[in-house]
Amino acid sequence: MQKEKITIFDTTLRDGEQAPGAALNLREKVAIAKSLERLGVDVIEAGFPISSKVDFDAVYQIGAATKNCVVAALSRAKADDVESAIDALKKARRGRVHIFLATSDLHLKYKLKISREQAKDMISRAIKRARNFVEEVQFSFEDACRTDYDFLREATQAAIKAGASIINAPDTVGALLPSETTAMIKAVVEAAEGRAIVSTHAHDDLGLAVANSLAAIEAGARQIECTINGIGERAGNAALEEIAVILATRLSDRYETRIDTRLISAISDEASRYCAMPKAPNKAIVGANAFSHGSGVHQDGIMKEASTYEIFSPELVGARRAKIVLTRHSGSAAAIAAAREAGFIVQEDESRRFFAAYKRAAERCKIVSTEAIVQVAQSLGLRAYNLMQK
User: Fold this and answer.
1) Residues near 301 by beta carbon (within 8 Å), at least 6 away in sequence
2) Where are the domains positioned within the chain?
3) How many whole angstroms separate alpha carbon 147 and alpha carbon 108?
4) CATH number of the domain at 292-389, please?
5) What pLDDT sits at residue 159?
6) pLDDT for 210-251, tens place per residue?
7) What pTM did the predictor assign?
8) Nearest partner of 170 among 153, 146, 186, 194, judged by Cα
């Protein structure tokens, strides 16, 4: 069966840096963009040009600095926004204007104070203006998750007629369940009738951004919008590294991306550092504990065969090999292995005595250091390798 290509649209530099405290300067934006290009991202959303000079300059410079990906500039469905996005994309080899407008009745009534027909007119005019200057125009329904499906279909067809080649249906407030995402994306896919790529953009308010992105793929979406480490507004966006690894492992027989997963850990660390957003230790794929093992049962299995407790190797994402973390939950096999790594020999008849002393030391701290292992070994008079060599 031929694999289907999933386009990875990275919005770390636009939606991601909207996370409180994560704002990036121009140098940092360009540096991350170059890393994203090496990673194999298809589309880099570089900024919202009309919002600030930094964003305008970022789109302009990233367009000039990258060669192998599309550079997208965000724009409201307003003439001035579209013109600013077009100007910012002048140096890009492949530029995309990404136009958005809220379409839920809630937003139309209270925020925009316009009718559905007025919204469709604004969408069409903005897309037509952009298409006079760029080949690729993407349209996004802000608050698609709460937009009436009949209107979603009407607006999809209007946007495609005006010249949009990508239609994005976001879960702007992170409200959907996977089954609801499936229904929403299917409605857009049916309305698009194969004339445009359908995209999704999920937020993680309920912890379902990645699950909803996968549901969107199953429903026919072929572009996924995501960010490194899942950073973004409120609880964040769908995490690029999670989606990429899931597609590369569990769904590799059906889908493919351009992502070089071996670069994930390094770029995750870079984005975390620049955005001043430390990763939770238990963060999937890129957290410090992602390949760490503290249970004695797990440690014993890992030392015998890594696949007993790891569904993919750390090397897949450029991480270090599995780490055995010594705690009071560790078993004798891990404790004895640690003593040997520290330079001490634990004979079979000494193993029980050593492990009993180890457990006493482990009760006094959360993690047992190499120094503590050495102290235990020395207190028992265990022989060291250098003494044997003499």
Assistant:
1) 308, 309
2) 4-274, 292-389
3) 10
4) 1.10.238
5) 98
6) 999 999 999 999 999 999 999 999 999 999 999 999 999 999
7) 0.90
8) 146
